[in-house]
Every structure is written in C-alpha cells, then in structure tokens.
Amino acid sequence: MPDSLASRKAKTLRLATKIMGGEDEAKRWMVKHVMGLNGQRPVDLLRSAEGAQMVRDFLVRLEYGVYT
Fold first, then answer.
1. Where are the chain's structural domains?
2. Cα–Cα distance list, 19 to 2, 4, 5, 50, 55 (Å)
3. Contact, 16 vs 26, CB < 8 A?
C-alpha cells in the first residue's frame, strides 16, 4: 500500500527536523521555494511519492554537504 500524504509529510518533517536542527526551522523550510528542488516548495512535492523521494534525497545531500 502506498504512503499517504500524511505519512509522507510526517517522515519528511522528521528528517528535515534532524537536518535543520529543529522543527520550527524544518517547517519554515518546507514552505520555501528551494533552488535545489527546481524552485519548488518541498510541501508541494510531497503530494506524490516521487516528489517526496526527491525531497528526502535532497535533504540527505544537504546532511552530507553535497549541494548538487
């Protein structure tokens, strides 16, 4: 069974919170247009499983200092 939107948001918010250093920072980041995501907002990308994976991959790259 595919992840629901709520599940994708929760998983991504947990990861973003870890990487951004806090939930408030993560929530602010989720609604910003992100250059590394082709100018899209992470929260909008979470509507699809593929978009959610793109956001999570980007967060992992940020965590390891890989910005491309």
1. 5-63
2. 25, 23, 21, 21, 12
3. yes
- Which positions ≥6 away from 25 have C-beta within 8 Å? 17
Q: What Å distances lie between residue 21 and 3, 26, 48, 49, CA to CA?
A: 25, 8, 26, 25
35 residue type, one letter: M
pTM beyond cutoff 0.85: yes
Helices (H), 1-68: 5-20, 23-30, 42-45, 49-63
pLDDT tens, residue by residue, 41-58: 999 999 999 999 999 999
